[in-house]
Specification:
By secondary structure, the chain is of the alpha+beta class. Helix content is 31%, strand content 29%. A seven-stranded mixed β-sheet has the order 2-1-5-4-3-8-9. It is globular, with a radius of gyration of 14 Å.
Length: 157
């Protein structure tokens, strides 16, 4: 698992930002720290609450000079619909091929539902050098991160 002090795995992936673009983590870090908020799936109750809460705290993240990205295995088209439904101002990264879930070692299964290899609920804060300065991963998809702790980590990145 990716831990504090590790170099964050670099990636290029589809980005749902109202359109469908491409994101390169290396390019994003040129603009300052980044927050990667992994969530199991769009249009689910806890994930909707989590992304809405991050939206409510987006000013704190941006004031600290960081950029927030939600990350799930959903397609960018589904993510854009999810963004629209929740009125999110931050983009979502589509990890439909599970590259990030595997690289950050945050894969989980909902075996009883027949759903495999989705993202655990996890938050990574990366400084502008790409070093992980904060890592939180939950084995319980019903548990949300401590948002105040995430903001403090962003301010320290």
């Amino acid at each position: 698992m990716v831990e504090v002090g590790d170099d964050a795995p670099r990636f290029t992936a589809p980005l749902a930002n109202g359109d469908v673009d491409e994101i390169s983590l290396a390019d994003e870090l040129d603009d300052g720290p980044a927050v990667l908020a992994f969530f199991p799936g769009a249009f689910t109750s806890v994930c909707s609450h989590e992304m809405s809460t991050f939206q409510d705290r987006i000013a704190d993240i941006e004031e600290a000079g960081a950029t927030l990205f939600g990350v799930s295995i959903d397609t960018p088209f589904a993510q854009n619909a999810f963004r629209d439904e929740l009125d999110l101002s931050f983009p979502l990264i589509s990890d439909n091929d599970r590259t990030l879930v595997d690289a950050y070692d945050v894969s989980m299964d909902f075996a009883e539902l027949g759903v495999h290899n989705v993202a655990k609920r996890a938050v990574f804060v990366l400084d502008d050098e790409g070093v992980v300065t904060y890592a939180w991963v939950s084995d319980d998809p019903g548990v949300e991160p401590d948002y105040d702790e995430v903001i403090e980590a962003v301010q320290s990145a």
